[in-house]
Write a structure and sequence with these properties.
heterodimer; A: alpha/beta; 7 helices; B: alpha+beta; six-stranded mixed barrel; two-stranded antiparallel ribbon; 16 helices; 12 strands
């Protein structure tokens, strides 16, 4: 199994209030699966994605990705792990405004000392082709539409050749037509690169497009379905 | 990563993106640096003025050599605590064996007594030197550059003028050895406005004895000629007395000594005090930074040869009390202002960073999520501050040099505390000091950024990625 979540719980303390975001979550995802996490706002989707993406640490439990217990990694090791193994796509794209399309996509690779500048360039160019943005290579994010920005964000996530791509509500800020295009793109890339995709959404229309849907409610896995 | 151009590009573009904030922070650094450079320029002016005055015009040289305990006791027991001709030869021989021999050696005699105009007497402090060495000192490029105000006599001519210094024979005697130069304030006390050879001088009046100093004509008689009398005690305790003519009025450069100083030819002083001895010998070196080392080597040579001489370098407060005291004060002030301005720069950077880090919180989170470590994110911000501080320092330094050049061209004059006369308000920022101070500024700015970014990046990545938090 590529991703294995064992008895993971996470509690947030907001002043005197304690919020149990996740409670004893168990989940297994195979290599190359295209999985949607669905649930209402505050159900714990983002918390689970953050934990899987090593952006946060669970209070209890373990998370294994590609045979690595990521909970036990220190901060710098987590950074390297994210850089080599995980790609992120954010709801608000999170592109750097001072960098153009190419530079935004190349950025995560600049901290990978195993890559030569030529390899970085080739990978960035390939990712740009994969998302169909060859004509916008020198554009800064401000001059792109929402859909184009999200495609840049996907290309940035793909350029490092990660085995896991995490997307937190990637279509939430897009109109439905563009949202479907983005999902199509993600599915194509999933098949082409055999990367594991895990993304959250509360768009019911999108759920019919994915092979596996995991429902989450009140911090627990409520049910799941496969096509 | 350090040399990766994309990070420098990001830094530069971020500065441009937030150009108003960058401009304001940059101006704070530039003006602060400009102020420090100008202050440094003033400090260099003061230091060089006082140092040149001390080394050359107060005749202490870079190194001065006295008989053992001679500095303290040469006035009370001059015969025992002055340098005999044999001592002088031994000192010259020792200087020749130095790795960095002096470029010039001068001999000086220091004495005291009373100077009188026939009616009133005042204590004098005599410095006697050879004409050749006085000429060498007064034509030296450093004295010409830093203390031109002190070189020109207030009136008349010095006994050293019209002589060519003979470096091989610094003992050459002055041809006009009964002409002396008195400090201009002492000349005023003595009621001696005229100098020897003045067209208005009444030569016959110098032979007259003023019998009634209270009479109206007495003052006119005293003022009508340049003659004075010196009275003192010879080296062996006898009476010393001599007539002399005032050939010029000069300034020592120091207010405290201008009311009693006289400068006389060495042979005149030796004749007056009945001695062949001198009080000290001064060594003038090619570069002043080696004075301490040369003094140490000289002490070692004297010790090996069992010679009992005291050696002082010009930074010794027993020799150049005013210079050492004034510069200590100036250094403390300089450090105080440097710390103050660096503090302001650090706070400006901190203030700007606080806003910048808050605005770019999501960017920090994004960078962390795509694999940047805390230190690599910090290095991005440090690059921005480095660029901003470097540009500001170059701009501030350039502005400082322009201001200094303009002020110097105005020839403003001011009385420096403790000095005898007004000096030009010169600002002479030293390139090496400017570069050193600029480096300190850049380092302070970068360190401030480094610590603040590190502090901010201790937050979890998820909290950095939260909007509005």
């Amino acid at each position: 199994m590529y991703l294995k979540i064992n008895q993971v719980s996470k509690t947030y303390h907001l002043g005197e209030t304690t919020v149990a975001a996740l409670r004893n979550v168990n989940l297994e995802i195979a290599k190359g699966e295209f999985t949607a996490l669905v649930g209402a706002s505050g159900s714990g989707k983002t918390t689970l994605l953050n934990l899987v993406g090593t952006l946060d640490t669970p209070d209890v439990g373990s998370i294994w990705i590609d045979d690595v217990d990521v909970v036990k990694l220190n901060e710098d090791q987590k950074s390297v792990f994210r850089n080599r193994k995980v790609g992120f796509v954010f709801q608000s794209f999170n592109l750097l405004p001072v960098l153009n399309v190419f530079e935004n996509i190349e950025l995560p690779m600049t901290v990978n000392s195993d890559l030569t500048p030529e390899e970085r360039r080739d990978r960035a160019m390939q990712a740009i082709k994969d998302v169909g943005l060859e004509d916008f290579i020198a554009h800064v994010p401000d001059r792109l539409s929402g859909g184009q920005r999200q495609r840049v964000a996907i290309a940035r996530a793909l350029a490092t050749n990660p085995s896991l791509i995490i997307a937190d509500e990637p279509t939430a800020n897009l109109d439905s037509k563009t949202a479907h295009m983005i999902i199509d793109l993600m599915q194509n890339l999933n098949q082409k690169r055999n990367s594991t995709f895990l993304f959250s959404t509360h768009d019911e229309k999108l759920m019919s497009r994915v092979s596996r849907v995991v429902r989450i409610a009140d911090g627990m896995i409520a049910d799941e379905s496969r096509k | 990563m350090i040399f990766d151009s994309v990070f420098w590009k990001m830094a530069w573009r971020n500065l441009r993106l937030h150009y108003r904030r960058s401009l304001i922070t940059g101006l704070a650094i530039a003006f602060g640096f400009c102020g420090v450079v100008l202050l440094g320029g003033y400090m260099m002016r003061m230091e060089n003025y006082l140092k040149t005055q001390g080394i050359y015009l107060s005749h202490s040289g870079h190194i001065s050599i006295y008989k053992k305990d001679g500095l303290q006791k040469h006035l009370t027991d001059p015969d025992l605590y002055s340098l005999t001709p044999e001592d002088q030869q031994k000192i010259l021989a020792a200087t020749r064996s130095l790795k960095s021999p002096p470029v010039f050696v001068a001999r000086y005699l220091h004495g005291q007594g009373l100077i009188t105009n026939g009616c009133r007497s005042f204590p004098f402090f005599m410095t006697a030197s050879e004409g050749a060495s006085e000429t060498w000192v007064r034509t030296h490029p450093l004295t010409q550059f830093w203390t031109p105000e002190l070189l020109a006599l207030k009136k008349g001519k010095g006994f050293w003028e019209n002589e060519t210094p003979n470096l091989n024979s610094p003992n050459s005697n002055s041809p006009n050895s009964s002409s002396i130069v008195v400090a201009y304030r002492l000349a005023r006390l003595l009621q001696k406005p005229l100098i020897n050879g003045d067209a208005n001088e009444d030569l016959s009046a110098s032979d007259q004895i003023v019998s009634d100093c209270e009479s109206e004509s007495a003052l006119a008689t005293v003022r009508s000629h340049s003659g004075i009398q010196l009275v003192g005690s010879t080296f062996v305790g006898g009476l010393a007395a001599a007539d002399a003519k005032i050939s010029g009025h000069y300034t020592t450069g120091l207010a405290m000594s201008d009311a009693g100083a006289i400068l006389v030819p060495l042979d005149f002083a030796q004749s007056f005090y009945g001695t062949e001895q001198v009080t000290w010998m001064s060594l003038f070196l090619g570069e002043r930074d080696i004075a301490k080392v040369v003094a140490k080597n000289l002490r070692k040579i004297f010790s090996e040869r069992k010679l009992e001489f005291d050696v002082f370098d010009y930074r010794d407060e027993r020799i150049n009390q005013f210079y050492v005291g004034a510069m200590n004060f100036v250094y403390v002030m300089m450090v105080f202002f440097l710390v103050l301005v660096c503090g302001v720069v650090a706070l400006s950077i901190l203030n700007s960073l606080q806003i910048s880090l808050l605005e770019r919180k999501i960017e920090l989170g994004t960078l962390r999520s795509v694999g940047f470590t805390r230190s690599s994110v910090t290095s991005l911000f440090v690059r921005e501050v480095f660029l901003l501080a470097s540009i500001s320092v170059v701009a501030g330094g350039t502005l400082a040099f322009v201001i200094a050049g303009s002020i110097n061209a105005m020839n403003l004059r001011f009385p420096l505390v403790g000095t005898a006369d007004e000096i030009q308000f010169l600002l002479k920022p030293e390139p090496w000091l400017t570069i050193a101070t600029g480096s300190v500024f850049i380092a302070v700015a970068c360190l401030t950024c480094y610590f603040e970014c590190n502090r901010r990046l201790r937050a979890s990545v998820t909290s950095l990625l939260e909007y509005g938090a």
